[in-house]
Amino acid sequence: MVSGMALVRIALGGYRGFAKRQFIELRPITIVLGRNNAGKSALVRAPVILGTGIGTDTTEPLDLDRLSEDLVDSFTDLVHGNHAHGGSIDVNIGLDTDIGFIELGARVRHLNDHHTQVVEDLDLSLNGAVLCQMEWDLDEPSGSPLHYTVSDGLEHWTGMPVQFHGLLPVAFDERFPSATTRAVQKAVSALVDAYPTVRYLGPFRDRPHRRYRLPGRMRTEVGVAGEFAAGILASDSARGGGRLLKQVNADLADHLPGWRVDVMPDGGTWSVVLVSTADDRIRVNLADTGTGVAQALPIFVQRAIDVIHPSTRPVLEIIEQPELHLHPAAHADLAELFLTAVKNTSTRFLVETHSETLLLRLRRHIAKGLDPEKVAVYFVDRVDGEAVARHITIHPDGNLDYWPTGVFSEDLVETKALVRAQRERGRKNAG
Sheet containing 29-34: which strands, arranged edge to edge? Predict the structure, then answer.
């Protein structure tokens, strides 16, 4: 289990629906709530996008070619208002690393005439002390490297060529003091090491199939639609002794009482089935089960992988609508699953959800003694046409310092309406 390294803060401005800079503190479990089309998905997907500028050797600030069109079409798709002419986004990331707290701030500008982007401004600091500040000198962007006015917090140099890999400066002109160059390169290396492996499970899961081919290699991630989950279980059963399957069933025992998951050879293919724990002759192909089971299975498979094959790196797992197609009673069980995972593995979670029950279970654990700092909650709303993310503090007693009007109040509203309708009906019948 990796400790002491984590992405603990992101900030974005001029990004999609967010015109003004939004600061998001990432805890072991970070919950993002909000009304439909408010900007929740854009917010939770940001670490995926920012990660394309970390640990890459491309000269583009963000290597968006690594992402599917389902996540982002182009850089201008990320800019608030889709401003192609000179549009920019401001990004800031803060990480706990082996050498201390590193903060990176950058403005990435789109140059429409050149169909490219550049890092226009950059600030890099370690434990609050400036390592370097940079401002682009507006030279020809097709040249390499670009030239910047660079400062180490004491002196500054103009016209200094700087080589970038993604968002990170990796090589300076010899005029920059060698000791400072080494300090910057050490910080960049620590930042790359601490930036987590980012997993993303989207809201549209893969439809279960009756049969699956045995994959040629064992994957360690279920995929953005959970499309590899069944193949992972088949490979584990055929080659790994079924350890993952046993772990999945141990986790599912309380969530799916009366059933266990099994993988069965079927000629040259494999089938994922549910088997009755009361009578193992009763077997149901996953394709014939309720949608909720198939939608949740990738989450349980990923949890089992983390236990059996723990990551050597920090992991941030982004899940949109984990409760999709599940009965409300199962939503709280997902909260338990996440809490167990952050306790026993190196995985942290950024979860976009519409589930009141999931949040209530987390609040209950805090009231019972869980450190409130383990959980962060944000509500995304639109104010004057712009997306805004507001932090909601959970107090040690589980209460909240703020709650938006009308959110999760549907049951109360419907109950009041039902009572009014019953009274009106009673009056009519009495008359």
Answer: 197-201, 315-320, 347-352, 29-34, 375-383, 386-392
